[in-house]
């Protein structure tokens, strides 16, 4: 079978690979949250899951760091096939491919069995109730002491750069989910890579929802995405990251 060649996107450097299902991009960015989780994964005593892994850029970092067993999950089986084809035999023996919706893995991954979960760049495609469900899934699948890492576009990303009056009004009104997004709020150059709906999530929202299901927060904050990808620079708060532990 001939696999498609993913489109690489350039914005002040090679920074992203377009997904085949048009759900945004896999970001090739090794920020402080990614580095901390990859270091943990390399030493973890148990299986690590990279949920919504795209073409496996972060999965490969975990394997390179020494992770013993990594589950690679994505909605797109084709993307997982592209990832698997890129691995050598040694790494293939440490990888388990599980295609499908990350929110429906309870029948494929036993509860309390994962040492860590990495979820980057896909909670932005979920409705509020789905985000809450995702947090519960993460918590239930994880071993006590396991680590969670989440990365998302924030309300201060390029997605909402021209809609800051909307964000400010929502936050002033106490809106629980101020980052609900549609294409009419976007005036950037990558509209054809994006679906009609997205959800920008700030660190306080990630922290609130992780705490609600029982996680202990290690770190939550904004990521200066534009420091690496100048075309996406807004004000240094373009992305949000979270590191949390199941007690």
TrEMBL record:
It holds the Pfam family Methyltransf_25. Residues 48-146 form the Methyltransferase domain. It comes from the Eukaryota. Signal peptide: none annotated. InterPro entries: Methyltransf_25, SAM-dependent_MTases_sf. This is Methyltransferase domain-containing protein. It comes from Hypsibius exemplaris. The lineage of its organism: Eukaryota, Metazoa, Ecdysozoa, Tardigrada, Eutardigrada.
